[in-house]
Specification:
This protein has 222 residues and is an all-beta fold. The protein has one domain. Helices cover 0% and strands 45% of the residues. It contains no helices and 18 strands. The strands form 3 sheets. Strands 1, 2, 3, 4, 5, 8, 9, 10, 11, 12, 15, 16, 17 and 18 form a 14-stranded antiparallel β-sheet that branches. Strands 6-7 form a two-stranded antiparallel ribbon. A two-stranded antiparallel ribbon has the order 13-14. A hairpin with a 2-residue loop joins β2 and β3.
Length: 222
């Protein structure tokens, strides 16, 4: 059956900044069909990244953003910041990366979602974003010009802005990348880097990207 993971629904449960879950509505009440459960786990890859703002005043990781970002309504937030600006790197250093794992309790098909606001800010951050999975997938970009994204959204060639100062407003879609799984998938990961060593002591070095609702189909029969 066709389903949507809608982050703003009450069915989405954020435990804390590192874990959350979503269970679809029971397809037939007390009947034989069963709902689908998605679990989300977020981990640090390296030693120089933390969730939330660099100064510790806010942590929206795995929270739901009210409103629209990149054309997506009420998206899921991935929010992180460096621990030490001096340890940042202009390369995609795994010490400056988090990994968010999405796991379904059974295989789903036709999974589609969009990651928005992949951008950069001078002396602050440069987003690097990749999707990985044991299942094959395809990716597209809303904008492939120098005002949009470079890369293909894979570990070998992550999505990233063309420059260190390529900010995308919430109303814009230049920082959007879309992922599609045609066949069965049980789990996928989003890898999220800060890939600039530039910093300014007057700027909190946090960065955010946003995940749209998920569209998919699954077998509701046990």
């Amino acid at each position: 059956m066709t389903a949507a993971i809608v982050w703003s629904d009450l069915k989405y449960k954020r435990v804390d900044a590192t874990s959350a879950s979503y269970t679809t509505a029971d397809p037939d009440g007390t009947g034989p069909m069963v709902p689908l459960t998605l679990t989300i786990a977020n981990t640090y890859k390296g030693s120089n990244i933390r969730f939330g703002r660099q100064d510790g005043s806010e942590n929206e990781n795995l929270a739901v953003r009210s409103g629209t970002v990149g054309g997506q309504t009420n998206p899921l937030v991935l929010h992180q910041a460096p621990v030490d600006n001096a340890a940042k790197s202009d390369e995609r250093n795994d010490a400056n990366k988090t990994i968010t794992t999405f796991t379904f309790d059974r295989p789903v098909t036709n999974l589609t979602f969009t990651i928005t606001d992949i951008d950069s800010a001078s002396s602050d951050f440069t987003d690097g974003v990749a999707v990985s999975s044991a299942s094959p997938f395809t990716t597209t970009k809303a904008n492939s010009t120098r005002t949009g994204l470079n890369g293909s959204g894979t570990l070998a060639d992550p999505w990233r802005p063309f420059s260190y100062d390529n900010s995308v407003p919430d109303s814009g879609t230049n920082g959007n990348g879309t992922v599609r799984f045609a066949g069965e998938v049980t789990s996928f990961q989003i890898h999220y880097w800060n890939q600039t060593k530039a910093s300014d002591p007057r700027i909190d070095g946090d960065q955010k990207i946003f995940i749209s609702n998920l569209s998919l189909t699954y077998n509701a029969c046990p």
